[in-house]
Amino acid sequence: MTAQNCLRILREVKDAAFATVDETGMPQVRIIDVMLIDQEKLYFCTARGKDFYRQLTASGQVAITAMNHFFQMVRLSGRARKLSGQKEWIDRIFEENPVMNNVYPGESRYILEPFCIADGQIEFFDLGREPVFRECLTIGNARKPQKGFFITDSCIGCGECHRSCPQQCIEAGTPYTIRQDHCLHCGLCYETCPVQALERKGI
Amino acid sequence: MTAQNCLRILREVKDAAFATVDETGMPQVRIIDVMLIDQEKLYFCTARGKDFYRQLTASGQVAITAMNHFFQMVRLSGRARKLSGQKEWIDRIFEENPVMNNVYPGESRYILEPFCIADGQIEFFDLGREPVFRECLTIGNARKPQKGFFITDSCIGCGECHRSCPQQCIEAGTPYTIRQDHCLHCGLCYETCPVQALERKGI
What is the pTM of this model? Predict the structure, then answer.
């Protein structure tokens, strides 16, 4: 899986969930169209009257997710920045998404402002295949997160984690190892280990 | 539209986006199954190893959204509380959602914890009909939010807002009035009014 393909999934699903934090620190989420994908950048827009617009211009921090019909989920976290050249961007967005004219006919389209996410962390999770598959990716200059459970050298090789794993993604060895790309991050191994040999990173 | 029907939409779509705020104040969002709808309560579950679980047990504040094939969007904001009687609830959830056994076979299901949202604010937005339609509803003891743009008595009746509205949902009068149930909340009237007669509430 590549970051570009993850952005394509968001564009294909199109109606993705965009989450922000409001001025009171509460989570907010709404369905927003992914309007364009270009290189490794994601473009969307919103109207200046909306609380979403205020949250984007305040911190710009946004988390996006969508799932396609194959049960492939993409999560993208990053900072959205407002684009200069509003008219040109909105015109391009309407050109590639003509249905927008039904909602914002004529000149009313210019109440919309274009935003771009150029740097961000991506989590791809495929629940449609067995075993499940996950991968962390990035766009732009975002650093790649290390997430998951890891078995340390304290492992005594008893195999409790291996037997408990819902996805059977823990391999025997010294120490035992978790196949990170097939892990649910459920934490059952972490709870089951009799000697607390597991550590939890970034989740 | 009723709150119950909004919850049914979330259950029918099933894979909804659940947004939280993490310990660093950043927005987080992921796809989670809506497992049960009972009365005016929504039930879901997550594994104890996940950051989602930590965020739910820290503040419990969650915002949920999903859109169905008719372009009807539901947003639900409220506090999720962890349910006692974990085994009974997880068993009921697996009974009504047997596909869960593929991901968490056998006893591994008990790494999951059940949560319920019993009080919350709902926004229903129907982009699939013309004109667009929106309504605010609540479940439990949540207070109903007043959101939108409102034309005050400072209105001079020039009709600029009426002419600018993308959805033509502003009616002439003294003052002019916005048909709130057909408003996009785009804010074009707010910007267009030559005498700043509009006020913005809750958005």
Answer: 0.96
The complex's ipTM works out to 0.96
Instruction: Write down the CATH superfamily of domain B3-139.
Output: Electron Transport, Fmn-binding Protein; Chain A (2.30.110.10)
* Residue B136 CB coordination number (10 Å): 17
Q: What is the mean pLDDT of each run of 10 residues along chain A (203 residues)?
A: 95 97 96 96 97 95 97 97 97 97 96 97 95 95 90 96 96 95 96 96 81
Give B164's contacts in chain A (Cβ within 8 Å). 108
Q: Please provide residue A122's backbone torsions phi and psi, each rounded to the nearest 5 degrees.
A: -120, 135
Instruction: Select from B50, B67, B102 the Cβ nearest to the Cβ of A31.
Output: B67
Determine whether the interchain pair A75/B30 forms a contact, defined as Cβ–Cβ distance below 8 Å: yes
CA B34 to chain centre: 13
If one looks up domain B149-200 in CATH, what number appears? 3.30.70.20
Chain B hits for A29, Cβ within 8 Å? 17-19, 29, 63-65, 75
